[in-house]
Amino acid sequence: MKKVFVLLLSGIVVITGVFASCSKETEDNTSSQGETVQQGLEANADEVEIVAETVTDENGEPVTDEDGNVVTTLVAKEVNSGSNNSGSADNSYSDEETLATNATENETATTKPGVSLTESAKTTAFSGKETVPSLSDTGKEVNFSEKDILIVQSMLEVPYLYTANYENAEGVPIEIATHAAIWMAEHEGSTRKTYPSSSVVLNLFKYFGQTVVSFKTKCNDANANSSTPAPITYNKNEDTFSISEFTSKKQDVQITKIEDLGDNNFYKVTGSVTGCNKKKVVAIIQKNRLDTSLGFSVKALKWS
Question: What whole-number distance in Å separates Cα of residue 129 and Cα of residue 137?
Answer without folding.
Answer: 18
